[in-house]
Amino acid sequence: MAKCVRCRRRKAKRFCPALGGVLCPLCCGELRDREVQCPPHCPHRERHKPYQDRRTLERRPETPPRHEPPGEDVLRDERLAWLALHADAPLAEIAASRPEFSDADAVAAMEYAKDKLERGGGLLLIPGQDRGPRNDAGEAVRRGLDACRYERLVRLAGGQEGYTTEEKIRVLERLIRAARSLARENPAGRAYLGRLADQFAAIREDGEKTRILAPR
User: Fold this and answer.
1) Alpha-carbon gap, residue 175 to 190, rounded angstroms
2) Reported pTM
């Protein structure tokens, strides 16, 4: 029997349509909808998705993140709230075009973007492939963060400000906690994504940048 294309140790028992190769069950579970963007028709994804969604929400303990001082909410900072808006925007757009996209999928996308930032942008590499697999929603979140520039209401010399990797991670940690909290009762639902849709509708309606400071 063939070896798993990821670990190269265990026996491969599952064909992965996203990778075009075979995986062992353990690697399939670790990669599913995180580093690998699983197609909706994959039988392994369909069979294990309820468990995977629950695992996504419960994977890490609800403890204060290491990048955020206790009692401090990064979204009270207008500059970081503006960055959060650019992380949320791709998720809102994807949810509007993909009815099957859930809160658990949104959490997985943000975790993918956060993990990639912490690894310095590296992707999982599979032998024999030109590029690693990717979570398309997570890549969209990462691009949104990278493209974001903050422009002060009072223009100063120097123009727009960029963001550090640590600031991006702090914002993602905050958004992941909010999404997990809202999605805990129904991971396959859209409590978090519905709130995003309402928030962006309000922004479009009045065009005020201060809307992004509303508590999540």
Assistant:
1) 15
2) 0.70
Q: Give the amino acid at 114.
A: K
Type of residue at 213: L
E-assigned strand segments in the chain:
14-16, 21-23
Q: CA angle, 9 as apex, 7 and 15 as ends, to 5°?
A: 65
First-to-last C-alpha distance (Å) of the chain: 50
> What whole-number distance in Å separates Cα of residue 62 and Cα of residue 60?
7
Give CA 215 to chain center in angstroms: 19
Reported as a single tens digit per residue, the pLDDT across 154-208 is 444 555 678 999 999 999 999 999 999 999 889 889 999 999 999 999 888 776 5
Q: Tell me, what DSSP letter sits at residue 12?
A: P
8: which 2 tokens? 């190269």
Who's near 188: CB < 8 A, 6+ residues apart? 49, 50, 53, 102, 103, 104
Would you call 213 exposed, middle or buried from its count of C-beta atoms within 10 A (0-12, 13-18, 19+)? middle
